[in-house]
Design a protein that fits this description.
By secondary structure, the chain is α/β, with parallel strands linked by helices. The protein contains 10 helices and 11 strands. The structure holds 2-acetamido-2-deoxy-beta-D-glucopyranose (7 copies). One of its GO terms (molecular function) is oxidoreductase activity.
Length: about 375
């Protein structure tokens, strides 16, 4: 019944009202249309100047020749999001959101015509006031219910079975953790024995950097709403300067398990990689993405963040992701690669250039994140 709630809360729903259109819930298993009239507006998709109700373009990943089969495979995530919805609001201009009631990344104001360039700063260099605002918003995200709900369990579901789902309510932070787990969960495809691909749809593949970029941007937006402060940013944690995790809030502080955090040398090595993510696998030594993901793995091993769940238990994980994103931004600015460099085929499911990142809604392609961060409304100090 409450399937639609998932999409809405992903859509940067306005924290203050927490409403969601019940009509969409029913449509998820029937008409598969979700074109809401957002609160405060009189037309669907907030009216013709903001958006129109349109078909979701279907993008088949071309992977190991499984492309068209993805749709019939029993994994509800593949060919996102059309196993749930085939029509949604398509927002025009600077508008954005499940009902086009919000602003595109980098834009603010009631008409979405104000620009605001965020500067993400290293956590030690924040002002005490900024630190407090961030901490308060983080705390709020851990206690504030989204008003929406998440899937209680993941199953293999064919298109025909996408109904009668079990949901539970959650906090914003719980929702973010859910996104990371849901995208990477292997259980969903484990019995599809014909599928010899890696079921991680958010990592171990080309989409690693782009998926995390969108993830952080969404989290940052929600935290801005929680703090009522459009200047709130997620600070990054430069671990090359550290021997322990001083930023970690929990037992992980000083809890370096084995080995060392990567050094500046390791980061420079990644920055020197000539391509974003070339195929075939024999060229992975030239892949910036593979190198960056290697840094992530090293940090996580050292800190004991072995799974998505474990990583999200430590809020400093977000600051770690912001540092990875900073490295990505730096590499991008040096190389300015054409989008064609991002693989369009032979990627893991959901991770090709034009596939929608799983499980976000409003949808966003990897391609939309493969740009200078200025275009998305933020830079790094
Ligand atoms: C639900 O689907 C019906 C068509 O069956 C459509 O008329 C209605 O606008 C849809 N509701 C939403 C919120 O998209
Ligand atoms: C991919 O599938 C098509 C049609 O199903 C087939 O003609 C082609 O040979 C396959 N390619 C590979 C590399 O298996
Ligand atoms: C955030 O919550 C933690 C415990 O959950 C508490 O120790 C800390 O003081 C809170 N911080 C703020 C700024 O409220
Ligand atoms: C695997 O593929 C074969 C041949 O295409 C098919 O007969 C079989 O049912 C498939 N198995 C599963 C679990 O989908
Ligand atoms: C990542 O994917 C490769 C194949 O692309 C696979 O061999 C490897 O086991 C995967 N690693 C993890 C940690 O899943
Ligand atoms: C949010 O901030 C703006 C200006 O910064 C202020 O005018 C407004 O009253 C605030 N809203 C709430 C709910 O605190
Ligand atoms: C990657 O490996 C190939 C051979 O395995 C080698 O020719 C190439 O120079 C290497 N590239 C880099 C950037 O190390």
């Amino acid at each position: 019944m409450s399937l639609m709630r998932v999409w809405l809360l992903v859509g940067w729903a306005v924290v203050a009202n927490g409403q969601f259109p019940g009509v969409c819930v029913q449509n998820a298993s029937i008409s598969k249309i979700c074109c809401q009239t957002p609160p405060g507006f009189t037309d669907i998709c907030a009216g013709p100047s903001r958006g129109v109700c349109a078909d979701i373009p279907v993008h088949y990943d071309v992977m190991l020749n499984y492309s068209t089969q993805f749709l019939s495979l029993n994994d509800e995530r593949f060919v996102w999001p059309i196993k749930f919805f085939t029509k949604t609001c398509y927002c025009l201009g600077n508008f954005y959101g499940p009902g086009c009631q919000h602003c595109k990344l980098g834009f603010y104001g009631s008409d979405c015509n104000l620009r605001n360039q965020l500067i993400r700063v290293e956590y030690r260099k924040q002002s005490p006031q900024r630190r407090q605002i961030y901490q308060n918003a983080l705390n709020a995200s851990q206690t504030t219910l989204t008003g929406y709900e998440i899937l209680k369990s993941y199953q293999m579901r064919s298109a025909a079975e996408v109904k009668n789902l079990v949901f539970s309510s959650t906090t914003w932070y719980g929702l973010w953790a859910w996104h990371l787990s849901y995208a990477a969960d292997r259980r969903i495809v484990s019995s599809d024995s014909n599928l010899s691909v890696n079921p991680d749809t958010a990592g171990n593949g080309s989409g690693f950097a782009t998926w995390r970029r969108y993830f952080l941007l969404w989290i940052e937006r929600v935290m801005q709403q929680l703090a009522n402060d459009t200047n709130l940013f997620i600070p990054y944690w430069d671990w090359t300067a550290d021997y322990s995790c001083a930023i970690c809030s929990r037992s992980a502080a000083g809890n370096i398990k084995a080995g060392f955090l990567p050094s500046k040398y390791d980061v420079d090595l990644c920055l020197s990689k000539p391509f974003y993510d070339p195929t075939p696998a024999s060229r992975q030594n030239e892949s910036f993405r593979a190198c960056l993901e290697g840094l992530d793995q090293r940090v996580r091993v050292v800190l004991g963040w072995n799974s998505a769940e474990q990583a999200m238990r430590e809020p400093a994980f977000l600051n770690h992701l912001a540092f990875l994103d900073k490295i990505f931004a730096e590499w991008y600015n040096r190389r300015r690669p054409p989008p064609t460099e991002f693989p369009e085929q032979m990627t893991a499911p959901g991770q090709s250039l034009y596939s929608y990142m799983i499980p976000f809604l409003p949808m966003a392609t990897h391609a939309s994140m493969l740009t200078a961060t200025e275009n998305l409304g933020y830079v790094y100090e």
